[in-house]
Task: structure prediction
Amino acid sequence: MNSFNQTVVFVMLTVLLLASPAWSQSAKGKVFNPDMSANFLGLFQRGTALTDDRTEVPHNGFSLQEAELQFTSDVDAYFKAVALLGIAQEAGTTEYGIDPEEVYLETISLPNVAIKAGQFKMAVGKHNLLHSHAYPFLDAPLIHQELLGDEGLTETGVSAAVLFPFSWFSELTLQALSLSNENLFASPSSSQTGSLAHLKNLWDLTENLTLELGLSGVTGKNHFDKTSTVLAGDLTFKWRPAEGGKYQAFIWSSEFLDGNRKGLTDEVTGDPAEHLGGMATWIQYQFAARWWIQARYEELGLPHPASIPSEKKQSALIGFYPSEFSGFRFQYDHLKTQGVADDDHTFSLQYNISIGAHPAHAY
Amino acid sequence: MKTCYIFTVLFLTTWSCITHAKLSVVTTTTDLRALTAEVGGEFITVDSIAKGTQDPHYIEAKPSFMIKVNRADLLVSIGLELEIGWLPNIIQGARNPKVQKWQRGNLEVGPMVEPLEVPTGNISRALGDVHPDGNPHVTLDPIRAGQIALFIAERLGELDSEHKETFVKNAQAIQTRLQEKTKVWQNKIDHSGIKKIVTYHKTLTYFLNRFHLENPAILEPKPGIPPTSGHIMAVIQLIKEQKISLILVENFFDPTVTEKIKNNVPTIRSATVAVAVDGAPNIATIDELFETLINTVCGR
Result:
């Protein structure tokens, strides 16, 4: 465990100790403690492309996919703060590491704008803003994994999200970010800063149906002292009736990412590997109070360089949620890779548990 | 980039200077909207986030609600964790400092009217969807509804002192009217012979408590947990033992669960009821909500 991780563990233990009754002077004193919650994602997988080597992530058999610890509180009259620490297996070892997935402060006292500073998930597309416990499927879309990495695009920086005075929800987010992401930037200089713009619009088409359209772009210098750029578009229809809405809902989401990592070449052949795009589209249907069925189609390589084979993937999922705080999901994936004779088939069973403070659910 | 920052600052400054002639109020539920509308009269505009047909525990934090709250002078909610799954996200997304919790533009009425069913001792989520500060369905008691009208009037008066007297007068009229009607409604209940009612969820606790009706069984085995066969069989046994003659199912729950009970106890009456203003086409006011509930209990 490196020194940063030790620091994080120290901070976490400190917060936990402060929250314990022994350190609180009275019940009233506890109201100043942060809201604390933990999410656990457990996994059992069998896949034709998965290995039995338990140092690989993912691998066949049982695994703790991830645990997330979240602390949230108002800091004072001006800010709230969020710390979300992810505990996951590190590739190449059976050890688990702690990463600060998000640690930031955000304004609560400014009109029409929210300013955020710290480390947080950048507003490129819609899926990248989700934590793994809130993913619609067990894994992120292929194009997100390939362009943004397993953890997605999380950077330190500042963000301003302005709400436009329109009759519908229209928000422009401008962000300045460090360029540490290994897949996209890996900028050698910490003084270099990237920029991001995200426009999100949401319309209530009817009382029961909404349409969300997002457009975003992020750019910055990369490892080759050239520019990496990602353009993203997302479109979501969401239907939940005002009458009977406890028992049925329907969501159709699509997301497209187009990345250009100037200077990137294939490590073995030296062929260009710069321009890579892909899309994912999925539907989610709630057919009973506690049951969902879902399907997803993905294409990686729209466009793609010759050095990166295109991939097509279909996924199906059925989810059972005994309560707001627990869920069990079964997913099947079929993956066809260009130039590979045999398709991959993966079966996964996941539990998703939440304890602690009641979560406020994002739309 | 510098031009962009200047534009943003000018834009925000201009926008924040926009003022509204009437106080703009957003409420979380339709009951609160009905009370606020009557208290504020012509001096306010008011809108509700939840519909009367929706379970107020499970509203989605739609961004369009953030727009409503962004433009509000006052946000009135129940509190007691009724809206905990969705209101914090709406407030954060609204970017309106006036309605942040603890500000004058944020009013939580539930804790102010002596909540019932406040758990004592240790509680756990193994007990279901328990509310640590008490049952949040406070507006289903006409007496508490009158008290809530007064609290809303006081807060509106703080935000618009010019019309404070009118707000208080309107609230007192609501309170007096509901107090008088409660006597009439109690009389009707007494004459109906109904003493015990089975409900689906603990939504009607305050209503039943006010009108001295017992609630010996709930169709949910625990709050928020859907009925199971085993629990329904236990409820059927209890209905037979205690000679209960009425089941009320709040209209955002699936009423088909009562079929099994009716097959086992043919004499029992089961009714689906609206539990909020606008929960049914004929319920546009808080008075009509109670009158419909009373008539349903009395079998009219």
Q: What stands out?
A: Residues 17-26 of chain A have pLDDT under 50 and may be disordered. The interface with chain B takes residues 80, 106, 108-114, 160-163, 165, 167-169, 171, 174, 200, 202, 204, 207, 210, 212, 240, 242-247, 289-290, 323-325, 355, 358-363 of chain A (CB under 8 Å).
